[in-house]
Predict the structure.
Amino acid sequence: MSTSTPTSTSYADQATTLVARADQDSWGTVQPSLYETARVLSAAPWLPGEPRRIAYLLEQQAPDGSWGEGPEPYRLLPTLSAVEAALAVLQRGATSTQATGQLTNAVNSGLAALRALPPAGPWPDTAAAEILVPSLVTEINKQLDILATREDLPDLGNRGLPVPVGYQASAPAHVARRYESAGRLPVKFHHTFEGITSYIPAALTPDTESLLGSSPAATAARAASPTATAATTAKAITDLTAVAQRYGGLFPEAAPFHVVERLWVAAALARAHLPTDTLRTIRRWAEDIYDPQGVRGAPGLMIDADDTAMAVLVSSLVGLPHDPAPLELFHNGSHYDCYIGEDTGSVTANAHALQALVSYMRHHPTAHDTYGPRAAKLSDWLTTQQQPEGHWTDKWHASPYYATERSVTALAQYFSHHTPQAVQAAAAWTAGTQHSDGSWGIWGGTVEETAYAVKILLSADTSTPQPQHTRALDLAETYLHTASHTGHQHPALWHDKTLYAPTLMIEAEVLAVREILRTRHN
């Protein structure tokens, strides 16, 4: 999806269009996931539309044999998923001779690409990779052993894959044993259930009314388990077919995605003047999404601090009195866990929490005694997470510009009367990493990362703009203007199980920043 924002259209008109698109789509604007689609292809031969998924699998393979987006380490999991799915289809033997040959070639080149990956990564911190990677390696090796005995197939070789350095082959079984003894599988494993389905006893298989953990892959895996009932499979067919209809026979990593999409779009746009009808739509979103028990990003997911904080922030921005009390569910003494049972903390979730606290206290001064100490601790914690070079990183996004912008925005709003050293250091790092064409980006310039970088510099220049920042912002403005007219593909930079690109969220960020750059000259 490309960004296209004609200069003849006002910010208010463009924002209204974005909000309307989000409001009219109950699923959310994300691209299909190669990883997720391959998991459904493997586990659900009973689901209509298999030929489309096979064709997609073959179409998406890169010339080097890998699948997925981003640098090589990010391609590990989608390539494992695609290879295993192709092997599963071959084992079922229900394809034409031509398709069999194509799938065999895809498997062989995919296995070669996997063996060519750096043996020790470093691997990205994507959701549950420690379970999903070894689980898929095990399944691929099982499939290769079985297919080696098939005389009707071309040679696939029988040299199994090693578990990459940094992962433990025993991890999925360890999770199963741990929770079998506890008698309950935590909800946090529902979204990635496909990674442990072969190890979990029937008594721990979740029974929910909708997509398991909002994940098509997890839902298909549950329905494919030996203990699944006819009713479970029938329900999975209904739910997965609905998702496939929205995404052209394919599947995203989370569905529906509209809660996250609406919160992030609203937070990006609501700080500027919006038409009354558009503001009314955002207020309705906030009313619908805010929950005093905590907000979840999609049905079947755990409540989490990130979505809860964003719901509080958006409510504050549009004048609703929703307080930050639900965040207390996640406080651990120094900052907020993103969800109960989290292994690694999230910088951006805590930056959103700080923004929410600050915004709420500004609108409700009497709440300072309650939330002021929390905000103080949070600003201290965020500062300690800053890297020596001046930036921040986070597990929900591949780019440090996202984590840095979120942290800088939160700290700048908290220290509203002066610019703290952490913000100055972040601005210096940002100014020093701009590309010659005016863009920013870790893997090449993108409009998304450029928008974040612009906001970092502007947060550091609230009193006296620095000349070097002014030059950088001028270059960025030209770059964003050019990109809006030539079309710019949004690369996948956001972390779930693999990389994804939330199109409307990105477009809202870019639109808001272009308006800020335009009005700074007034």
Q: What stands out?
A: The radius of gyration is 24 Å. The first helix runs from residue 11 to 24. The CA atoms of residues 320 and 441 lie 36 Å apart. Residues 1-8 have pLDDT under 50 and may be disordered.
